[in-house]
C-alpha cells in the first residue's frame, strides 16, 4: 500500500449513473464508475467500482473530519477480509473527497427484507455468520463497528455479505477497553449506549442480535414508531420471542440481546463465543471464510449494470456534473491540510 501517485483524479473514472446511497454525510452517494485513462500502477483495468463522493464543506460544517479519516483508516485495514468492502483508492479535489470502493450490486439486506419480510433460519444463519466473521475481524484490529443494521449489509453478485460504511467505527478499543460516544441507529442501540454509559465491543454483538431478530421476525426487537416507547423496551422490557422458532436461535437471541453487557454473549471471549454457539453448529467457519459455502440466495445479477436489487429511489437520482468533471489541477498536491493523508492507492495484491 502506498500513497496515491500524482495524476489520479476524477478524470481517471467514467461515472455512469447514481446507483445507491450507503450512508455517510449528506451528498455522499455511492456511484458506479469504470476506471479509464489511468496509469497501469493504479489499476487501469476497465472494471466497475463504486465511488463515494463527499462534500468537504458539509463535513467541516458538521465537524465530521475525524469520522471521515476514521472511515478511511478502517477501510485500509479491511482489505484482507472477504466480507468487508474493499478500498481501492481515495483522493480529493479542493471541494470533495472520493472513496473508490468495491462495486457491489446484489442489494442491501434491508432491500431484500422489505421485499420478503423475513428469512428462514438457515438463510438468517448464513448472513449472521458472515457478518459475525467480519465483526470479529474488526475486533481483532481493536475496532468497534457501532452501526450494524440491514442498510449497511450488502449482498454481492453471488449472495455473500459485504459490510460497508465505517463512518461510526471507533479505533483503538482494546479487549478490556471502553468508549462512550452516543452514536448509532435508534432501532439497534444497545441499552448501555442509551444510558450513556461507557460501552465495549459487546455493543456490536447486541446489534448483531437485533439484526438477526429482524431477519426472522420482520422487525427489530422492541420496535415502535414511538421512539420513547422503543427506548423503554430496549432498557426495561423482556425480549419478546414469538413462537415457531428453534430453541437454538432463541437461545442465541437471548444471549446477544442481554441487557447487561457484562453478561452478554461475547463478553468473555468475543467472536469465539458466537462461533461456538449451538445455532452456528452447522457452519464450517473455514469454509465460510473462503466462500466455499453456497449462499442460500443468489441475486442472479446479469452484470455490473444490473440494478434490479437497488431501490429505484437511488437509481433515479441524477449525477451532479461536478462528480464527473475532470478538474484542472493535480489532486496529489491539495493545499487543504485538514484532510492531509487522505489519498491512497492499494497495491494489486492487497485484495483477495
From TrEMBL:
Where in this chain does the record put each Protein kinase domain?
16-280
Q: What is this protein called?
A: Serum/glucocorticoid regulated kinase 2a
Query: What's the source species' lineage?
Result: Eukaryota, Metazoa, Chordata, Craniata, Vertebrata
Native organism is Amphiprion ocellaris (Clown anemonefish)
The UniProt entry, under PANTHER family, shows: RIBOSOMAL PROTEIN S6 KINASE
The record's SMART domains line, in alphabetical order, gives:
S_TK_X (SM00133), S_TKc (SM00220)
The molecular function GO annotations come to: ATP binding; protein serine/threonine kinase activity
Q: Where is this region: Disordered?
A: 16-41
Xref: Pfam families? Pkinase, Pkinase_C
Q: Does the keyword Aminoacyl-tRNA synthetase apply?
A: no
Specify whether Phosphoprotein is a keyword of the entry. yes
Amino acid at each position: 500500500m502506498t500513497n496515491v501517485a500524482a495524476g489520479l483524479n476524477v478524470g481517471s473514472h467514467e461515472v455512469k449513473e447514481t446507483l445507491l446511497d450507503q450512508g455517510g454525510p449528506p451528498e455522499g452517494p455511492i456511484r458506479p464508475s469504470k476506471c479509464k485513462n489511468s496509469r497501469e500502477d493504479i489499476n487501469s483495468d476497465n472494471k466497475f467500482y463504486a465511488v463515494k463522493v463527499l462534500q468537504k464543506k458539509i463535513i467541516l460544517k458538521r465537524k465530521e473530519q475525524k469520522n471521515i479519516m476514521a472511515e478511511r483508516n478502517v477501510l485500509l485495514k479491511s482489505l484482507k477480509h472477504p466480507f468487508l468492502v474493499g478500498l481501492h483508492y481515495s483522493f480529493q479535489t479542493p471541494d470533495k473527497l472520493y472513496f473508490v470502493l468495491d462495486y457491489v450490486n446484489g442489494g442491501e439486506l434491508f432491500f431484500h427484507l422489505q421485499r420478503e419480510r423475513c428469512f428462514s433460519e438457515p438463510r438468517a444463519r448464513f448472513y449472521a455468520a458472515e457478518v459475525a466473521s467480519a465483526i470479529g475481524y474488526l475486533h481483532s484490529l481493536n475496532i468497534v463497528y457501532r452501526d450494524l443494521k440491514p442498510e449497511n449489509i450488502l449482498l454481492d453478485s453471488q449472495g455473500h455479505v459485504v459490510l460497508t460504511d465505517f463512518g461510526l467505527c471507533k479505533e483503538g478499543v482494546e479487549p478490556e477497553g471502553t468508549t462512550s460516544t452516543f452514536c448509532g441507529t435508534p432501532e439497534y442501540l444497545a441499552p448501555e449506549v442509551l444510558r450513556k454509559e461507557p460501552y465495549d465491543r459487546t455493543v456490536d454483538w447486541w446489534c448483531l442480535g437485533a439484526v438477526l431478530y429482524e431477519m426472522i421476525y420482520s422487525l427489530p426487537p422492541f420496535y415502535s414508531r414511538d421512539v420513547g416507547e422503543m427506548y423503554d423496551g430496549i432498557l426495561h422490557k423482556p425480549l419478546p420471542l414469538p413462537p415457531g422458532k428453534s430453541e437454538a436461535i432463541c437461545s442465541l437471541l437471548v444471549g446477544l440481546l442481554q441487557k447487561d453487557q457484562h453478561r452478554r454473549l461475547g463478553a468473555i471471549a468475543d467472536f469465539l463465543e458466537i462461533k461456538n454457539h449451538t445455532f452456528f453448529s452447522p457452519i464450517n467457519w473455514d469454509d465460510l471464510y473462503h466462500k466455499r459455502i453456497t449462499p442460500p440466495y443468489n441475486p442472479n445479477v446479469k452484470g455490473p449494470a444490473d440494478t434490479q436489487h437497488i431501490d429505484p429511489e437511488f437509481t433515479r437520482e441524477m449525477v451532479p456534473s461536478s462528480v464527473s468533471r475532470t478538474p484542472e489541477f493535480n489532486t496529489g498536491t491539495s493545499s487543504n491540510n485538514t484532510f492531509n493523508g487522505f489519498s491512497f492507492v492499494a497495491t494489486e495484491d492487497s485484495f483477495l
